[in-house]
Fold this sequence. Notes:
The structure holds two protein chains of two kinds. By secondary structure, chain A is mostly helical. Chain A has a domain at 57-180: Cytochrome Bc1 Complex, Chain D, domain 2 (Orthogonal Bundle). Chain A is 37% helix and 4% strand. Chain A has six helices and two strands, in the order αααββααα. Chain B is globular, with a radius of gyration of 18 Å. The interface between A and B is large, with 38 and 48 residues.
Amino acid sequence: xxxxxxxxxxxxxxxxxxxxxxxxxxxxxxxxxxxxxxxxxxxxxxxxxxxxxxxxxxxxxxxxxxxxxxxxxxxxxxxxxxxxxxxxxxxxxxxxxxxxxxxxxxxxxxxxxxxxxxxxxxxxxxxxxxxxxxxxxxxxxxxxxxxxxxxxxxxxxxxxxxxxxxxxxxxxxxxxxxxxxxxxxx
Amino acid sequence: xxxxxxxxxxxxxxxxxxxxxxxxxxxxxxxxxxxxxxxxxxxxxxxxxxxxxxxxxxxxxxxxxxxxxxxxxxxxxxxxxxxxxxxxxxxxxxxxxxxxxxxxxxxxxxxxxxxxxxxxxxxxxxxxxxxxxxxxxxxxxxxxxxxxxxxxxxxxxxxxxxxxxxxxxxxxxxxxxxxxxxxxxxxxxxxxxxxxxxxxxxxxxxxxxxxxxxxxxxxxxxxxxxxxxxxxxxxxxxxxxxxxxxxxxxxxx
Lengths: 186, 253
């Protein structure tokens, strides 16, 4: 009889601990969503060298206007003025219309006529006179810098614009043409 | 409810962001007014009511296995490894676990209710400095390392990392009229949840991370993920190293 009571006692104790253990399992009680896949998909390929395409550099007013527009604006939704001919403000991605991203170079660089230019990157005012005419820089250098600045400076804080496919070659050419062009100071 | 004072740390931040670049006279007047009355106080008050529903400090202290007296200091040690939750977690995740344990519906991490409750609970640690021990166990070591990696990894449409704009060599420089803050000296980890005037709402530190991700074209990752918790550890540790005391709710541009 005593034995039986003991056994029942043990079973109840066992049962109640399991119940307690179950109640106490809180490892799934809070959110901890996975981010690793998002980050993996968003990751960047290593630095890439790009040869400037033929006839990349242009003095065509329209192309320089495109470069200037990409330089000074963040995206098509945010940009106030009309976009120059040949540059759209919206793009269709996966069937959805989205604002086209621009360079927002002005966030980090001052340049002729810039509004609220930043100073994280060097001032690009008078770039032609200071860097191109003195042969300190050449077209290919500027093209590569904008396309993927990691090639020249692995620790750069600058944006990467061609390797990321944010822009195409033509757009990088327009940006390069704009940066190295002769500009009026205001 | 503990009275929430606007501490000096915030005033210092304000003086900093009050540089000529970011502020118009109208903004300055608004700041002056808001300084007297942080709009976040309403949310924090609301948060205290939510917290009451799950048993207040007494229940939290019990859940965490600490005395009520040590609770503020313990709150200032988060994110940390909590054995019964099996991970390094933020205070918000602990609150979710308490809700579930009590058979209640949990607030989503990204919900306004959770933001309010988190603000209140973290404000209980006001005036404490962070005391995160990143060598305490392998879990927190890994979380800190993941946070650092997440902070430094370039990704997204523009190939930027957090470090691109928050490294020592660019602090104080101007990104399109915005001075780049020193996340340690500005007491960043210690001043969120905060009221963000440009968003007219209470935001948390992880929600603020998402803002930078979105702006800089990095794919936005979810609140509460290991990477986000790691980032919180990493940024909070910066405030700890700069000896900044918690001052919640903060008040931000």
